[in-house]
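Support case: user asked for a sample of complex input and structure output to validate their parser. Sending the pair below.
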Amino acid sequence: MNRVRVVLVNTSHPGNIGGAARAMKNMGISELVLVDPERFPDPDARARASGADDVLEGARIVATLEEAISDCVLVLGTSARDRRIPWPVVDPREAAGLVLDQLDDAPEATVALVFGREDSGLTTDELQRCQYHVHIPSNPEFSSLNLAAAVQVLCYELRMLDLQRSGQPTKMKKTETTSIQNEIPATAEEMERFYVHLEQVLVEIGFHDPQKPRQLMPRLRRLYGRIRPNQVEMNILRGILTETQKAIGVQASGERRR
Amino acid sequence: MNRVRVVLVNTSHPGNIGGAARAMKNMGISELVLVDPERFPDPDARARASGADDVLEGARIVATLEEAISDCVLVLGTSARDRRIPWPVVDPREAAGLVLDQLDDAPEATVALVFGREDSGLTTDELQRCQYHVHIPSNPEFSSLNLAAAVQVLCYELRMLDLQRSGQPTKMKKTETTSIQNEIPATAEEMERFYVHLEQVLVEIGFHDPQKPRQLMPRLRRLYGRIRPNQVEMNILRGILTETQKAIGVQASGERRR
């Protein structure tokens, strides 16, 4: 991902440069090139970067798109509008595939993702310097994304694919606090003992009449089966039943009422 | 998608509410509920919404998360940090699958996507009201996305999946200007005539010696074969060859030099 370059062309609002830097860093991308930005550096950029100061400080400023991409082997430009130039168009997911394929094929190569002006995007001439146009599938009636949001979507797709291809998880694992027991599902035997206990309590509280079962137990089996309780949860469920029995005056399961 | 509700909890910066509204509308989602926002309505919200005023104006303000989600059949909460609560965690793509499956299964149901505070996310209590936690796979060293950026990623995944499932394209088609010819690839015969013409010109300009072919023509066949030129492009390529011949003094292909 350190061979992915984000190029922002002629950005008007420095806040968007900061937002783009933050989105990049969130997704593990750090190389930013600014083509003729209107205001940069600027406090608004720093505020929106919200800690991605290293990306902003490392940003290179150049005068033309050509300078920004001259050493890149693959250049993708974002394009919101149909400009009636027939050109290869990809969605962000396909774009991520093209980028990572290219980086795999050419281990020294750099790839550029080019983003245009907030109000008018990339010019026809700029778009023609890109091998592919990336279109984010937005609502046709309100299609123009915020610049930093567009950077976020593309960098997110790159990170998702990079994690997938390198066999890393795309979501964090939450560590358990209590014990490993949290992760061990209840066995079938434990489930059966639970159902016996549950039915007994339902009878004791007067909710269930085994002579008129009305499909109650099968329904409850389906419900708890779907939950697939773990050991800790099973202990809780059994505890509730036992406490219910105590509350209604049954000493322990199987014993008769006092 | 009109049964997807975005819930923002206790947002500090109204600009982020505006950015979220814009991201939603870009992705075709319109229902916004604000739980106890610090400042709303606010000119900053409107500025960042950048035209998604209808989403802001339709936003409902409630006092508690409970009010925001009480009628929802599925609630997903975004969670940046490992809070050491074992809980089902999904990535944004899996989250989109869960949401659309739920909407398919229950045609009247509403689903909520819940986003926490800019600085501290959702509380443990709030997270426990969500059936699933959504984790955006960010850089572990800089993991906290801007609120509107997080809304953008989730709404983007929903739209991508919704378009895919309904058989709609995830990228726009660029209409051709010239003619339908643009889309018709050159036939094998046209390609062969081109290769004959090309070889002839390469001989004429002194670049190619058929007695010492050095694999030149196979290499060029591989190159142009990969390009798969269409009719218009083929006319251009042939035109270049003809003009080259004129420039070096060959009247037309097959004729000898003057």
